[in-house]
Amino acid sequence: MAKVKVLVNGARGKMGAETVEAVLKEADLELVGQADLGDDLTKTIQKTKAEVVVDFTHPSSVLENVKTILNQKAHAVVGTTGLTPTDLDEIKKLCSKNNVNCMVAPNFAIGAVLMMKFSKEAAHYMPEVEIIELHHDQKADAPSGTAIKTAELILGDRQNIKRKAVKSIEKIKNVRGGEIGGINIHSVRLQGLVAHQEVIFGGLGQTLKIRHDSISRESFMPGVIMAIRKVKKVKGLVYGLENLL
């Protein structure tokens, strides 16, 4: 059986380097190339004849990277956050145009996917909820893609969550965090953290906390490897690792 030819874009970054090591350990995958800032991604894909390109780069460049990958008729596995709904629509059209697939995941940790799934279920019974996401101090965007995806899953078919009107004076601007559909999201950035999220539900006389902690970047690799193996078999754009489980 032929090995899947894999190129890692952003290979000198922390997530990219971890992905390189993970791919090298898999007998059915072949690491054919590595690219990073300053490299010509188009030429690298052409030279290596990569079938799947994994992108762990930066929110400011991720869309152009994905467009390059898809236009070169390679499949994309994207862990870089920062893609907007408009970006995803454009990616979906490019997948169709070039007959290739793209897997975009806000979080590749299986435990994080389960956290989001459990939060969606809990919201049916305890609709009042806030999200606290905590990441290392080098993370380029806030809130995290995981927090946004969690809020979207909780909201589901609802446009927003109606909360009890409480008169509140913010003594410090934005102290209550940002908001998506009535769900407040709080972002923490500190040295010593990797990737963590706590979803807190409130009800009459009770609270429920659903938390996931990635204590090392190894936690993301089983999901990344699974996406590399499956991206050739899906159809078009797939958003969220839960769609592969």
Automatic annotation (TrEMBL):
Catalytic site positions: 135, 139
Binding site for (S)-2,3,4,5-tetrahydrodipicolinate: 136, 145-146
EC numbers, comma separated: 1.17.1.8
Compartments (UniProt record): Cytoplasm
Record-level GO cellular component terms: cytosol
Catalytic activity line of the entry: (S)-2,3,4,5-tetrahydrodipicolinate + NADP(+) + H2O = (2S,4S)-4-hydroxy-2,3,4,5-tetrahydrodipicolinate + NADPH + H(+); (S)-2,3,4,5-tetrahydrodipicolinate + NAD(+) + H2O = (2S,4S)-4-hydroxy-2,3,4,5-tetrahydrodipicolinate + NADH + H(+)
Residue intervals of the Dihydrodipicolinate reductase C-terminal domain: 111-245
Main location (coarse class): cytoplasm
Residue numbers binding NAD(+): 10-15, 79-81, 105-108
HAMAP family tied to this protein: DapB (MF_00102)
PANTHER family: 4-HYDROXY-TETRAHYDRODIPICOLINATE REDUCTASE 1, CHLOROPLASTIC-RELATED, DIHYDRODIPICOLINATE REDUCTASE
Name used for this protein in its record: 4-hydroxy-tetrahydrodipicolinate reductase
Species the sequence originates in: candidate division WOR-1 bacterium DG_54_3
Encoding gene (name): dapB
